[in-house]
Amino acid sequence: MIVRTIATTAEVSGRTPFIDTVLLKVASRCNLDCSYCYVFNMGDEGWRRQPKRLPLGVEQTIVSRLGELLRDQGRPFSIVLHGGEPLLLGRDRLNTLFAAFAAAVPSCGLHIQTNGTLLDSDILDLCAQYGVGVSVSLDGPVDVNDAFRVDLRGRGSFARVMAAIQRLRDHPAQAALFSGLLAVVDPRSDPDEVYHFFKETGTPSVDFLYRDGNHTALPFGKASFTSTEYGTWMTRILDLYLADPTPPRIRVLDDMIKLTLGGRARKEGIGVSDYGIVVIDTDGSINKNDTLKSTADGADTFDTPWSVLNDRLSDVVATAEFRSYHEAQRPISSICKACPDLHVCGGGMPTHRWSDEKGLDNPTVFCADQRLLIGRVREHLRAHVGEVA
User: What keywords sit in the KW lines (predicted)?
Assistant: First the structure.
């Protein structure tokens, strides 16, 4: 649920990328055991090597480094507390961290991505005090959510998350606090049921994510590269969304519509805009977008072992290795480069392009799904505003 400042590929070519999003891992463990989690359950073991919670000394250095970064690049960025489960850091430590960021980087937006199970009134009050947006992970009704989002004893998380959402909605600052819900698509579920469920929660927005996977290990529920299980599911969501006079915002669909009309996206993974994303782990190490963990153990690490304990972030961003990582957002596959839908699809997430045989030199494994969905967007637009590109 992060609004990012973006630039087109042409605008960033030939100059140092800027950072618009810092994912800060304040806890490397989680109190849930979601079966599809790329951090814990897709082969990466990096979490075992990390401190369970952000050490205070590392925290202080991170705050200082982010202050340097803000001064060096001269533009603000979003700071997203992530995990694991970030609320495992505890209220007192969160208070200290929020206060430090408010002093060091007051122009930078603060956000928490949480599973919601530890989201109590005290933490909500603290987030309201410091203007921290809260996004909650929830996949749908109880049968959809609890098929995958279970705790360490195998118990479903639905009831606890719904109680947290109600606390969010009841809070006096809910309009500023509640950024929305993050949902991972189960293509076997009923999209009508899922859409109406999310609307009934009162969420201001829903971000739908495809399950992680690649050409070597296909995503859950996807039969082949050419099958369209996810695209068919999302196409029905699109139809419901556009027919609803008072829908919750669905950012990925809004972005696809804007891109089809010649505008820009504000969400990573579609369009040809660039996003400067850096991850800081609990030991202070500086790493790539952590979704790359789903391709191989350690795939999110740089060859150079950078750390906030030793390195300025602006110096890291200026290196050839970081620039290469940044440029990997754009697809290199000849199939993508020749595709008339590239300006909307953008080639998808790098992690979804991966294969053991060809690395990132593939279209997204969701290529057929995305082309089906983009085609349906165009059908709607032609019906309402005439012929579009």
Answer: 4Fe-4S, Iron, Iron-sulfur, Metal-binding, S-adenosyl-L-methionine
By the 8 A CB rule, do 351 and 322 touch? Answer: no
Give 147-172 pLDDT, tens digit per residue. 999 999 999 999 999 999 999 999 99
Integer-rounded Cα radius of gyration of the chain: 20
- Of all residues in the chain, the percent with pLDDT exceeding 70 is 95
Q: Tally the C-alpha atoms within 13 A of residue 162's C-alpha that lie toward its C-beta.
A: 14
For the chain, the structural domain boundaries read 17-382
Distance in angstroms (rounded) separating the CA atoms of residues 345 and 66: 32
Task: Map residue 243 onto helix, strand or coil.
Answer: helix
Global pTM?
Answer: 0.92
Distance (Å, whole) CA 368 – CA 229: 9
Cβ atoms < 10 Å from Cβ of 23: 21
Here the contacts of 372-378 (C-beta below 8 Å, separation 24 or greater) are 372/228, 372/231, 372/232, 372/235, 373/231, 373/234, 373/235, 373/238, 373/256, 374/256, 374/260, 374/341, 374/344, 374/345, 376/235, 376/238, 376/239, 377/238, 377/253, 377/256, 377/257, 377/260, 377/344, 378/260
Task: Taking each helix axis as running N to C, give the angle between helix 251-260 and helix 367-385, from 0 to 180 degrees, rounded to the nearest 10.
Answer: 70
Q: Yes or no: is domain 17-382 CATH 3.40.50.1110?
A: no
Per residue in 182-203, pLDDT tens?
999 999 999 999 999 999 999 9
